[in-house]
Design goal:
Layout lengths: L2 H4 L2 E6 L3 H11 L5 E7 L2 H8 L13 E4 L8 H10 L8 E5 L4 H9 L4 E4 L4 H18 L13
Parallel strand pairs: 1-2, 1-3, 3-4, 4-5
Helix pairs in contact: 2-6, 3-4
C-alpha cells in the first residue's frame, strides 16, 4: 500500500541553510502528496524530533527524511547512524540531500544505509526540479513502510 494513498506524506527536512529551506518549502508548496513539511536546523534537533522528545512529543514519524550532511551540533552521518541503530527509525527512508560530491561522503552515506544520495543543484530551477523528482519517486511511485512506534499501538 503506497503511503500517499492512505494519507498525505509527512516529510522531515534536516537543513540549516535558510535559502535551501525556503526553496524546499516553495517546491512542495503546491504538492498534492506532501501534507506537512517539518524543518529542523541541526542534527541534535533532528534526533529530538525523530525520538519525539521535548516540544516534539506529538510529532509523527516522517514518511521520508531529507537529510543534509553539513549540519551544526551533529552532522548528517551521525543522524543517519543513530536512525539506523534505532529499531523504531531504521525503516524510515533517508534521502541524503547535500552539496557535497565527495566520494567519501557518498560511500559513508551508503555504508550507513542511506536510501539514496542526491547532490543539491546550485541552480534554482534545477533544485526545484530535483525536489519534484524526489517527490515523484519517493512519495508517488514507491511503496513506503508504515513506521509505527510501539508507544502508539493500542
Amino acid at each position: 500500500m503506497k503511503r500517499n494513498e492512505e494519507r498525505l506524506a509527512e516529510v522531515l527536512l534536516v537543513e540549516d541553510n535558510p535559502g535551501d529551506i525556503r526553496l524546499t518549502r516553495e517546491a512542495f508548496a503546491n504538492s498534492q502528496v506532501v501534507g506537512h513539511l517539518e524543518v529542523v536546523n541541526d542534527g541534535e534537533e533532528a534526533m529530538r524530533y525523530l525520538n519525539r522528545t521535548g516540544r516534539y512529543a506529538a510529532a509523527r514519524i516522517p514518511d521520508v527524511v531529507l537529510l543534509d550532511l553539513n549540519l551544526p551540533k551533529k552532522d548528517g552521518h551521525e543522524v543517519l547512524a543513530e536512525m539506523r541503530a534505532d529499531p523504531n527509525l531504521r525503516l524510515v527512508p533517508v534521502i541524503v540531500l547535500t552539496t557535497s560530491d565527495a566520494a567519501a561522503d557518498v560511500a559513508k552515506s551508503y555504508e550507513l544505509h542511506a536510501n539514496c544520495y542526491v547532490r543539491k543543484p546550485l541552480d534554482y530551477a534545477a533544485f526545484v526540479e530535483t525536489l519534484r523528482r524526489i517527490e515523484q519517486y519517493w512519495l508517488r511511485t514507491v511503496t513506503l513502510p508504515t513506521c509505527v512506534l510501539p508507544s502508539t499501538l493500542s
